[in-house]
Amino acid sequence: MELFKYGGYVGKVLRVELTTSNIKTEPLKEEYVKKFIGGRGLAAKMLFDELSAKTNPFSPQNKLIFITGPLTGSGVPGTSRFVLTTKSPETNIYTYTVAGGGFGPALKRSGYDAVIIEGESSEPVWLFIDNGKATLKDASRLWGTPVFEATRLIKENVGYDVSIATIGPAGERLVKIAAVITDDRRAAARGGPGAVMGSKKLKAIAVRGKQTLRIANREVFSNTFKQIHENIRVQPGPWKEFPETGTQSGPRKNDAWGILPTKNWQEAVFEGATRISHPSLREKFVIKDKGCPGCPVKCTKVTLVKDGTYAGALTDGPEYETLYALGSACGVDVPEAIITADMLCDNFGLDTISTGVTIAWAMECFEREILSLEDTDGLELRFGNHKAMVKAVKKIAYKEGNLGQLLAGGSREASQKIGKGTERYAMQVKGLELGGYDPRGSRGMAIVFACGPRGGCHHAYGVSAFIEIPQGNALQSKGKGQLVYETARLRILLDSSPICAFLASRVPLPLLTTLISSVTGMDLTVEKVKKIASRTMNVERAFNAREGLNEKDDVLPERLMTEPLPSGPNKNQIITQEEFQLMKREFYEAAKWDLTTGLPTRSTLEALGLKEVADQLAL
């Protein structure tokens, strides 16, 4: 077989049409690789090209794109990742999600850079990719089983050396906040890709193989590899203690900063923050430090509840976002319950952020006597009631009872069903529940949430709070649009390579550029990769524009702009309409989008080599 032009790629895409069970191999497009690198960027363009506007996310026409990047499988710390892209059933717009662990490198070794799933099977199936050979197998025995059981059954069937991505009962039941979970408990979760997989009756994908990665410039790669390891040795992560704390120091740190969303974002400090943070978690529950393949940082903290009501609960984490969503957002300061709920989300196949924040919305509605005991199936769904929170997780996953049916679509859909002004308590943007950083104490996060391509997510455009707060200008609005534009472009490059965002400070942009160049053989500069990032940003924006979104959809939950924080370091802070519009205008100006509509202009798209995108939008 002729080698692909660039190193780092297999050069092949697997297309699986489930309606007809047709499986074929297609070449990876060289011009797209050069324009988008891989991962997030390449998948965004694939989805834009292949999906018609207004496609129902649950229709056979929707696509699931599992994709790697040129660094996947290179052995560089933090590059053990894959991206999953689709149209979200929760938000009805573009979504992508990134996950670490062993699945990404195994997919590359199996002989493919990407797998495109389309159509809809009439019966449950699972896909097995074994060293370049792909087959669909009967999943009737697997259908209905939780993630951990399905994973065990597949490994018993084909061998324990496979890597697996599967859905649980939530995905099968089309719960719109359902996740895809790997065999090493990494989650591709935001926006409900697990529900799309369930709609196609695809239970799992298992991969293994022996494909080796070709490095274009071995000498430069080796030197860069050594430099990255030296950077990690000096400081192994975003802070020196990161291998010990992981992200579990987040609740305590964000509480001190006054940006820890608490009781459904009514507050931004939590009296129970230390109980659900490092070092308390490490002293009482952490039994092992674990990392992705090839990464020496080992930031994952395996936790075990050894006694009490929740004895036996075991999970990889919980990470900060889970501690916030199932912890402070719900007023829960019982770590045993959070660990249990985290484990259940993994086993049932749920996004922990959307699950926790949606339960928090229900708790506020219950406390305000808008939801009754009949609505909650008898659960006293009050802030701090950890037992009710844990029970609610299962109800959502199985769409069980009145409460499960109500919450299975996320907080926006639930609030639309209930009405009665509950929309103002739904902490979401464009249908996606917010990550755990209150913009009232970190202004840049307002633009991260409002303008991000997949809705109220903290990841896609970067966590500006980590820059603003240490610099001491967190409450200033001027300059934040430009700041977020730069953090967004960096995050796009990290997700496209892909490489872990926690190692961004260890692999700064010039070093990342050299790394990608050495692997692929492309002649890249910092300015060239920034342009690639801008190209991806515009394709993502164009996808949502084609769905009818524009400036009017770049908003924040009403609470953040009308309710001053009642306590903490940022007491009385609020985001005014004036400063929000200022930041948004700055962001549009930096992106070179139309200041009135917030959409990419034809001149901007054509300057990025995206004339066909401009033509699609009829600009």
**Overall 3D shape:** globular
Strand order of the largest sheet: 2-1-6-3-4-5
Mean pLDDT: 97
How many DSSP H or I helices?
25
Measure the end-to-end span. 42 Å
Low-confidence spans: pLDDT under 50, at least 5 residues? none
Biggest sheet record: 6 strands, mixed
Rg calc: 22 Å
Please tally the β strands and state the result: 17
| Oligomeric organization of the protein chains | single chain
What proportion strand? Answer: 5-15%
Structural class, please? alpha+beta
Helix content: 25-40%
Q: Keyphrases for this structure?
A:
619 residues, alpha+beta, 6-stranded mixed beta sheet, 25 helices, 40% helix
Structure overview:
By secondary structure, the chain is α+β, with helices and mostly antiparallel strands. Helix content is 40%, strand content 13%. It has a six-stranded mixed beta sheet. Strands 8-7-12-9-10-11 form a six-stranded mixed beta sheet. It has a three-stranded antiparallel beta sheet with strand order 13-14-15. β7 and β8 form a beta hairpin. α12 packs parallel to α14, α19 crosses α21 and α19 packs across α23. The mean pLDDT is 97.
Task: Give me a quick take on this structure.
The protein has 619 residues and is of the alpha+beta class.
Task: Note the topology.
Blueprint lengths: L11 E6 L4 E6 L2 H7 L2 H12 L13 E4 L14 E6 L6 E6 L3 H7 L4 E5 L6 E6 L2 E6 L8 H12 L4 E4 L2 H4 L7 E3 L4 E2 L4 H7 L2 E7 L9 H17 L7 H4 L4 H8 L22 H5 L1 E5 L9 E5 L9 E3 L3 H6 L9 H14 L3 H16 L18 H13 L2 H7 L3 H8 L9 E2 L2 E2 L10 H8 L13 H7 L8 H17 L12 H12 L5 H21 L11 H5 L14 H15 L10 H6 L3 H7 L2
Parallel strand pairs: 1-6, 7-12
Antiparallel strand pairs: 1-2, 3-4, 3-6, 4-5, 7-8, 9-10, 9-12, 10-11, 13-14, 14-15, 16-17
Helix pairs in contact: 1-2, 2-19, 2-21, 7-20, 12-14, 14-15, 17-19, 17-23, 19-21, 19-23, 21-25
